[in-house]
Amino acid sequence: MANGSGIDRVIYRTSVSIACRLTHKHIRWVGGLEYVPRSGPFILVANHSSFFDHFLTGVALNSVRQDKVYFLTKAESFTSPLKRRWHFSVGAIPIQRDKPDRDALEAIYKTLRSGHPLVVYPEGTRGPGWPLLPFKDGAFRFALKAGVPIIPAGLVGTATLLPKGAIRTHKASIGICFGQPLEIPQVSQRDEQLAQLRSVAEERITALMEKVSSAIAIGSPAPGLIEVANQMVDDMLDGEFKSTHIKKETLKNISKFVKLSKICNPGDIETEVVKLRIFGLETMMTPYPLRILRAHMLRRRALSVLDRDPNHPMARYVIGLWYLNMPKQFGQNLQKAIDNLSVAANTDEMSCRFHFSLATALIKMGKMDEADDILSQIIAIEQDDERSKRRIDRAIELRRSIYTGKAHIKLISDKVG
């Protein structure tokens, strides 16, 4: 594995940047990212017909988790010093395909113990694309011994994009789809267990390849990408981040994922909305007075979304917060804040996601009874996630301040998102 030196990090970052540009240029469909574990080790098993498979799987995995992706590659690729340095830097693990390789096994289990994903191609070498070559046991043996999930993936179009032996990419549409983790067969004999895993993996990968091919052929939108993006934003807001730098890096990584969604789902309004959420959070972390300029840009973006969907709850929420939190000299308008936040709240009565900001606006307007009704609604709904529970605690605190007459002294701020 890479030794982590400065030159290795430069090679890795440069290679990732090139891989992203090439992948974004040709990718047309992505699916199943909700099945990729956000943390912890796992083994990805996929079909293999092109060197570009490394790029496609790496870019797709890095869109939802920002750690290094390791992959097995033949030892012959490490012959020259230049090739050896590059392969080690980008996470390649050399393996002897025709004989036991103790060094490779140590590197594999060290990678998994460190919590990284490992890509293993069960075919063992690049095949024709279809039909698949017979699967080997290695990937499944590694997973069983390490006790890590096995995630299948189907790749399409990479053999056309970068055929075996080619050094330049060709015009092609590529795609990838991840599947649910494979269930481990509950049998006593290891050979039978491995045979069942091989069979199930081949069936699942074949089905995933067919799904990608069909989606690309008919121009189907990529499902689930925005749900994953919104969940990534929510997870960031739920986290106990003490460093603004960490938040900025997280938002930068989520933005990369949203770019993938924009490529696969051109013109999708929900992609624009999650971009709006990210821009709003970035604006909150921008120093004054640049924050004021960005805030006006945020308002224009939200209004652009509302031109397409006048009652979109998140866009209404962002506009409502804008009118609520802007300084008076730059556009604060409490009535407009209440109007917009009311629309957002009415679309989300079960989770009360937008109600706290509405209550805050009502208090600023002196409408204490209405605010009390909204806060009571928040408190009455049972919530399971930590962020909602914190929202309830804040609602209890704010409601208490209404009764003590101190609500006008301090209002608890809310976050865009």
Provide an overview of this structure.
Helix 3 links the parallel strand 3 and strand 4 (92-95). The longest helix is centred in the middle third of the chain and has 29 residues, at 190-218. It contains 16 helices and 7 strands. Residues 409-417 have low confidence and may be disordered. A 7-stranded mixed β-sheet has the order 1-7-6-2-5-3-4, sandwiched between helices. By secondary structure, the chain is of the alpha/beta class. Helix content is 56%, strand content 8%. The protein has 2 domains: 6-218, 3-Layer(aba) Sandwich (Glycerol-3-phosphate (1)-acyltransferase); 225-403, Tetratricopeptide repeat domain (Serine Threonine Protein Phosphatase 5, Tetratricopeptide repeat). The protein has helices spanning 6-26, 52-62, 81-90, 102-113, 138-146, 158-161, 190-218, 225-238, 244-264, 269-284, 290-308, 313-325, 334-346, 355-364, 368-380, 386-403; strands at 27-31, 42-46, 70-74, 92-95, 117-120, 150-156, 174-178.
Quick synopsis:
With 417 residues, the protein is of the alpha/beta class. Helix content is 56%, strand content 8%.
